[in-house]
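Weekly sync, protein design subgroup
Attendees: M.S., D.O., the rotation student, P.L. (late)

Item 1: inverse folding check
M.S. brought a backbone from last month's batch and wanted to see whether the design step gives back something sensible before we order anything. D.O. pointed out we never logged the input encoding, so this time it goes straight into the notes. Structure tokens as presented (250 positions):
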């Protein structure tokens, strides 16, 4: 059974990729943070910190975190930005946001981070309304990646940035094979045994199969209108951070 066929079949059972993804994250919201730490050996925190630094929000600016989930990237942005920075975290899965709200309350960050239900492919915000936009491990879950990047371009003000942190395809053959073995075989096993979620932690690696590699993702971002797009490979290329700028209007 190929990954493509099995995923398409799964999406059909729920009426498409978006409702499938929403239900899936709704089911694993309670174990999501723990599984992230375990499956990445704690590296996920470092990856988000790097992404937050690339977003580089200034004092008093507002950022948007798409697919904010349990709010870890929004929190990293606030911790790596100047005073008065505000984050809006959007996600289609209320259960993930609920976990995020509890965490934000524990950390006393309610005044800095606002979480809302919302779709990254149809962002419920006016044009030019945020200073920067980021996403952490969300892009490969989108139904239409180009539409997502177009929407980000619409809501970010001219001169503002987009930062996309996502699992990627490591370029080296040996490391690539090791990563493939870990990501497709061992990680789902952890998810099944510790997270007690077989289907969910099988979907997660397979969602990478048809996701573009880092140079192709850069080309897609440029195609929809992002300027000065660069990417940084982290941890041997397991993860890539793409950074783009919305060109100033002439
Ligand atoms: C892998 S989690 C990432 C959560 C968080 N950003 C992090 O760094 O851990 C992906 C999140 O994207 C959300 N998501 C998927 N498709 C979305 C969409 N179209 N719009 C908004 N959120 C979406 C899911 O509900 C899920 O919470």
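Designed sequence read out in the meeting:
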């Amino acid at each position: 059974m190929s990954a493509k066929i099995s995923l398409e079949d799964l999406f059909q059972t729920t009426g498409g990729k978006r409702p499938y993804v929403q239900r899936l994250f709704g089911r694993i919201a309670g174990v999501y943070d723990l599984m992230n730490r375990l499956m990445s050996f704690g590296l996920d925190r470092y990856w988000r910190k790097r992404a937050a630094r690339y977003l580089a929000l200034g004092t008093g600016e507002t950022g948007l975190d798409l697919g904010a989930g349990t709010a870890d990237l929004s929190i990293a942005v606030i911790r790596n930005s100047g005073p008065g920075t505000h984050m809006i975290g959007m996600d289609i899965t209320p259960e993930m946001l609920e976990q995020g709200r509890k965490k934000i309350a524990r950390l006393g960050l309610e005044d800095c981070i606002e979480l809302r239900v919302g779709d990254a492919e149809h962002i419920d915000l006016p044009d030019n309304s945020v200073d920067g936009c980021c996403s952490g491990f969300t892009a490969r879950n989108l139904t239409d990646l180009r539409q997502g990047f177009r929407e980000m371009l619409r809501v970010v003000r001219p001169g503002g940035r987009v930062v996309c942190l996502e699992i990627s395809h490591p370029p080296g053959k040996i490391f690539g094979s090791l990563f493939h073995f870990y990501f497709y075989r061992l990680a789902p096993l952890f998810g099944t045994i510790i997270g007690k979620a077989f289907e969910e932690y099988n979907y997660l690696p397979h969602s990478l199969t048809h996701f573009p590699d880092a140079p192709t993702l850069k080309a897609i971002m440029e195609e929809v209108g992002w300027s000065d797009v660069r990417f940084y490979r982290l941890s041997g290329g397991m993860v890539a951070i793409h950074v783009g700028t919305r060109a100033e209007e002439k």
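Discussion: The chain has one domain: 3-245. The longest strand covers residues 156-167.
Action: P.L. to compare against the previous round before Friday.
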